[in-house]
Write a structure and sequence with these properties.
Layout (H helix, E strand, L loop, with lengths): L1 H13 L5 H12 L33 E6 L5 E8 L2 E9 L5 E8 L2 E2 L1 E6 L5 E8 L2 E9 L5 E8 L2 E2 L3
Antiparallel strand pairs: 1-2, 2-3, 3-4, 4-5, 4-6, 6-7, 7-8, 8-9, 9-10
């Protein structure tokens, strides 16, 4: 019952409420799908925190195919593909200036593969590998010159001790 109540607001949100795009962006940030770790990976090293991303379902009224939401200035806010009533193929999130903020590949509605996060200037900031929406493999943070400053290995969503 509790899960159904949590799903109802998400379905209503995805059915077309005015704050859809900003809520999606905030939700994606909260889920860890946007690996733009301005805070660094320090918080993710806590053993009790599993890094996973849920499947984002959409209402029946949302048509299948490419979905693009834009900022008031006309730049893309995010882009994805709706397939089987969920986000599929990929989710790209953009900064208001139009620069790609993150790219996360999706397979069968789940994060799968190398997700990349970028700075507002378009420089690679972080990468993380997902398998069936759970962090599995390397997560890296890069400095402004592109040098790796931190690497964390995840297994089944949990950071492993070095």
């Amino acid at each position: 019952m509790k899960q159904a109540l949590t799903l109802i607001p998400l379905v209503v949100l995805l059915a077309g409420c005015a704050d859809f795009a900003s809520s999606v962006t905030n939700t994606i940030d909260g889920m860890g799908m946007t690996p733009d770790y301005a805070k660094g990976l320090k918080d993710d090293l806590e053993p009790q925190k599993k890094l996973a991303t849920p499947v984002v379902k959409v209402a029946d009224t949302v048509p299948e195919g490419k979905l693009v939401e834009k900022y008031d200035n006309g730049n893309k806010k995010f882009e994805t593909v709706i397939k089987n009533r969920c986000f599929n193929d990929y989710i790209d999130v953009y900064y208001p200036n139009g620069v790609l903020r993150s790219h996360t590949p999706l397979v069968n509605c789940q994060a799968e593969g190398l997700s990349q996060g970028y700075t507002q200037e378009g420089k690679l900031r972080s990468t993380i590998t997902f398998k069936q929406s759970v962090a599995n493999g390397e997560a890296k943070t890069y400095d402004a010159s592109g040098k790796v400053v931190q690497t964390v290995i995840y297994k089944d969503g949990f950071p492993q001790k070095s």
